[in-house]
């Protein structure tokens, strides 16, 4: 076999196997999923989060990493046989509690973007990190001022640069695109 044939075979093998290993490994995505799940654990606080399942992450080639999760901003008990109706005062209280938790969710999601930017070391710096929260509620709740979906996206490189220069929380927040629907 000639040297040209060997080089051609090695190049072909490199191209063939290059697509088999993702840029961001499943284990790296799982690590960020775990961080996300821990962030929203319902701990012994006065008004805990109510996560509905585990976070899920995926890598989208050419775009970046996307992590989704679903939660209720607060733990809400629906009507049940011993409490069949929710009073207007209870509905107002639930709404006020959720409005109070929304800025905390935004802060937590910004922190998650920073953590993901640092831990996803194989994610190309020019690609994005996106966290998307689906906010659950019952039909009896007042949804005024509360999004059903909150999405935050930032360039990994911009976040890493900001962290390296010890940017303030406000500076980091300015780098993150927020979309509420």
Furnish the topology, listing elements before pairings.
Elements: H1 3-18, H2 26-39, E1 50-51, E2 56-60, E3 64-72, H3 88-119, E4 128-135, E5 149-155, H4 156-164, H5 169-174, E6 177-180
Parallel strand pairs: 3-4
Antiparallel strand pairs: 1-3, 2-3, 4-5, 5-6
Number of beta strands: 6
Please state the overall shape, judged from the principal axes of the Cα atoms: elongated
Q: Distance between termini? A: 62 Å
Q: How many DSSP H or I helices?
A: 5
Rounded to an integer in angstroms, the radius of gyration calculated over CA atoms is: 22 Å
Secondary-structure element order, N to C: HHEEEHEEHHE
Q: What percent of the residues sit in helical stretches (DSSP H or I)? A: 40-55%
Question: Which structural class matches the secondary elements?
Answer: alpha+beta
Quaternary structure of the protein: single chain
The largest β sheet comes out as:
6 strands, mixed
The overall pLDDT average reads 89
How large is the share of residues in beta strands? 15-25%
- Which regions are unreliable across 5 or more consecutive residues at pLDDT < 50? 5-17
Number of domains: 1
Q: Would you write up a description of this structure?
A:
The protein has 181 residues and is of the alpha+beta class. The chain has one domain. Helices cover 43% and strands 19% of the residues. It is built from 5 helices and 6 strands, in the order ααβββαββααβ. It starts with a helix and ends with a strand. The relative contact order is 0.14. Mean pLDDT is 89; it is low at 5-17.
């Amino acid at each position: 076999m000639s040297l040209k044939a060997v080089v051609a075979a090695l190049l072909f093998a490199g191209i063939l196997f290059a697509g088999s290993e993702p840029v961001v490994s499943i284990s790296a995505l799982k690590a960020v999923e775990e961080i996300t799940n821990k962030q929203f654990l319902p701990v012994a606080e006065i008004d805990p989060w109510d996560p509905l399942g585990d976070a899920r992450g995926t890598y989208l080639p050419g775009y970046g990493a996307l992590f989704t999760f679903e939660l209720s901003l607060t733990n809400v008990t629906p009507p049940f046989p011993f409490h069949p109706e929710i009073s207007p005062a209870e509905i107002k209280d639930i709404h006020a509690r959720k409005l109070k938790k929304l800025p905390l969710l935004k802060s937590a999601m910004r922190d998650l973007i920073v953590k993901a930017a640092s831990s996803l070391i194989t994610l190309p710096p020019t690609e994005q990190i996106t966290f998307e929260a689906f906010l659950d509620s019952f039909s009896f709740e007042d949804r005024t001022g509360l999004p059903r979906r909150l999405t935050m996206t930032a360039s990994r490189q911009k976040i890493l640069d900001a962290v390296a220069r010890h940017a303030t929380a406000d500076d980091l927040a300015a780098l993150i695109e927020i979309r509420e629907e």
